[in-house]
Write a structure and sequence with these properties.
The chain has 115 residues and is mainly alpha-helical. Helices cover 49% and strands 5% of the residues. The chain contains 3 helices and 2 strands. It has a two-stranded antiparallel ribbon with strand order 1-2. Helix 2 runs antiparallel to helix 3. The longest helix has 25 residues.
Length: 115
């Protein structure tokens, strides 16, 4: 029984109560990013991919590419409010591709010292 009492007293003494001290954190936004070279590359790349998909220059959910790389419309059963049938899936897919290409361009330019 005494071993149990010793263990419990050791466990109680090693636990510290939480202190009431909090650190202050200041969050600031930097407006210098808007219009910077990095921002322009990111916006231009994403816009180029979204525009290509929207105006039928790239395959989308509704327009499938054949083995000869012709775009053929197919009925997918999705209803979108866009006249060209551009869906949320297309926006997410081509927005992601645009960001990936832009990040590659930015990192490549930074690696060569041109940015």
């Amino acid at each position: 029984m005494s071993a149990v009492a010793v263990r419990s007293s050791v466990a109680r003494s090693s636990v510290r109560p939480a202190t009431g001290r909090r650190s202050s954190v200041v969050v600031r936004s930097d407006a210098a990013f808007i219009g910077s070279t990095t921002n322009i590359i990111m916006v231009a790349s994403t816009t180029a991919f979204l525009t290509a998909a929207r105006f039928g220059l790239a395959p989308t959910v509704k327009k499938m590419a054949t083995p000869r790389l012709k775009l053929v419309e197919r009925d997918i059963g999705l209803i979108s409010g866009d006249p060209a049938g551009f869906t949320a899936v297309d926006v997410l897919a081509y927005g992601t591709i645009g960001h990936v290409v832009a990040v590659g361009a930015i990192l490549g330019l930074k690696a060569t010292g041109q940015l």
